Amino acid sequence: MLSRPVERLREGFDVVVVGGGVTGVWVAREAAARGLKVALVDRGDFGAETSAATTKYIHGGIRYLEQYDFAVVRESLRERRILALGAPHLVEQTKFIMPAWRWSKPSAPLLGAGMALYDLLSFDRNREAPASLRIPHPRWMSKKKLLRSVPWLEPSGLVGAFAYHDTLNVHPERLLLAYVKSAEAAGAVMVNHCSADGFLVDNVGDRLVVEGVCATDVLTGESLEVRAKVVVNAAGPWIDRVLATLGRDAGVGVDRSKGVHILTRALGGGVVRDAVFARAKSGRHVIVSPWMGKSFIGPTDTLMGGEEIRADRDDVQSIIDTVNSTMGRAERPLEEADVELTTVGVRPLIKAPGTEGTYTASRRHELYHHVDQGIDNVWTIGGGKWTTARATAEEMVDELFKHELKRVREVKGNSRRGAAFGAFAWARDAGPYLADAGRELVEAGLSTKSAELIARLYGTEYIEILRLVLEDRRLAEVFPSGDVAAQVVFAVSREGARTLSDIVDRRLVAGTVGRVDGAVLDRIAHFAAPLLGWDAVRAEAEVAREDARRKTCEFSRTV
Q1: Which of 68, 349, 542, 545 is the most buried (most CB within 10 A)?
Q2: What is the SS3 string spanning 101-165?
Q3: Does residue 358 have a pLDDT over 90?
Q4: Is the pLDDT of residue 204 over 80?
Q5: Which candidate, 384, 390, 415, places its Cα nearest to that of 72?
Q6: What mean pLDDT do residues 115-134 have?
Q7: Is the pLDDT score of 54 beyond 90?
Q8: Residue 27's CB: how many other CB atoms inside 10 A?
Q9: Average pLDDT over all residues of the chain
Q10: What is the helix (H) or strand (E) element at residue 257, kind and residue range?
Q11: Is residue 353 scored above 50 in pLDDT?
Q12: In Å, how far from its chain's centre is CA 109?
């Protein structure tokens, strides 16, 4: 799986997808499953930008009700159920607590009305769901019960809270990779670190007839042509940059919204098990989520200025100030020194007149067919979100079969009932499977922490990690995150990882749970280098480069 088959890009395709985030990956998966010959290229790693920098939820978007975006909320709630049933090993139902103070805006009665509507729009949430994934109705929590559950909240003016459930995307990087593998299993050619630099164009009168893309293998510098009947531009925040290479107005505008999250000590001393909406008097809010023994907090939602994608002091301070404004005296306020890690992603939002900033912008998606601009065989996907990517892909492929590919034979498929690659079973409680896998891994000599982590990350593929450990006991070496060396070998040999960042940030969990120092990078490179063809000098250089990159990205070391 995921052998990075660059040479296959020279074959002819029905569809070439530009962009390996969650939307592009789902388009490739949907198209291949329905009988199309598909290639996907991404200039970096799969999901390396926006799709890996999420709040870690597959959710209906209750706050979108404030913008009366009922259609987006309903679609999201439907898709929440579909994705949860398709990957039970990588999701969990999580209780959300929405506190209400006397000063709350919206007020408690309006919050209650919103909860009722949210519940109504999720009328099919438990259809075919096992007990572990069933979602109860929202309910009111008294102030006393609320403070027992969330002792760090400011009690003054607090009247209680509404509690409801959404779905935790435990490790978004691994869930996206499961969809990449699903696409490849369906026949798609999936290539990371391969940039689409322009279009293959035939000028016919005043029309541009696109016949594919010009691409470059970023790792080798090799240029190649990827020919296809139609190109789907799924480059997320960068869709306009892809289209700009055509040299004419393609009729697409995009706002880039920066979303920053921080990882801190566990608020409440680690006893809080529920996600909490921390809403300031300004109306701004962040979500404080218990995750991997810490608190994962965010996001910001601000219009991105310039080209650099990084969290700055204002982003981090905004999150800290919002949380602290809802915090009681019993909890030590958050400070910059508490920030262990930051993540930053860029959301692609459709430009819309009358929208004030990105916070209130719609999360709907839009499919752009560029024929009216004199451009044939190109579609662009604008907007959208993690939760609704499958639905967006389904709609996109429907359109391809109606237009450019109407003469191509379609294979009937149903991604609404399809399990993600590595899922133990569709719509089944993953608990017993995870327990059995964990026992096997512990019996092989791994710690309970590592065994539980591997079972969840890999699903049915845990057996491959187990095999590697049994064949070579050196691969049982454990890193501070709980990851083991066998995962490094698997990442390179079976999961298309080609850089240390690919391995650390999107195959293992090491890069998501805290800082990774040079010593750990050196040990990871020790196992990866022989498989990547790096000699000792190259491995040392790669470690130094990655260590420097990570230090540059670390907020606490750059302010």
Answers
A1: 349
A2: ECCCCCCHHHHHHHHHHHHHHCCCCCCCCCHHHCCCCCEEECHHHHHHHCCCECCCCEEEEEEEE
A3: no
A4: yes
A5: 384
A6: 96
A7: yes
A8: 30
A9: 93
A10: strand 254-264
A11: no
A12: 33
Task: State the alpha helices, DSSP H only, in 39-89.
Answer: 70-86
Q: How far is CA 118 from the centre of its chain?
A: 23
The reported pLDDT for the residue numbered 105 is 84
Residue pointed to by tokens 């390396």 = 48
**Cα 11 from Cα 8, distance rounded (Å):** 6
Q: Hey, which CATH number is domain 90-170+256-350, 3.30.9.10, 3.30.70.1350, 3.30.1330.120, 1.20.1740.10?
A: 3.30.9.10
Q: Check residue 491 and give its pLDDT.
A: 98
Take residue 215 and report the two structure tokens written for it: 């691409």
Domain 6-50+173-253+362-417 = CATH 1.10.510.10: no
Strand-pairing partners, residue 162, are 98, 140
Flag whether pLDDT at 359 surpasses 80. no
Q: What is the pTM of this model?
A: 0.95
- Give the domain ranges of the chain: 6-50+173-253+362-417, 90-170+256-350, 431-557
CB atoms within 10 A of CB 559: 12
CATH of domain 431-557: 1.10.8
Residue closest to 56 by CA, chosen among 220, 197, 175, 171: 171
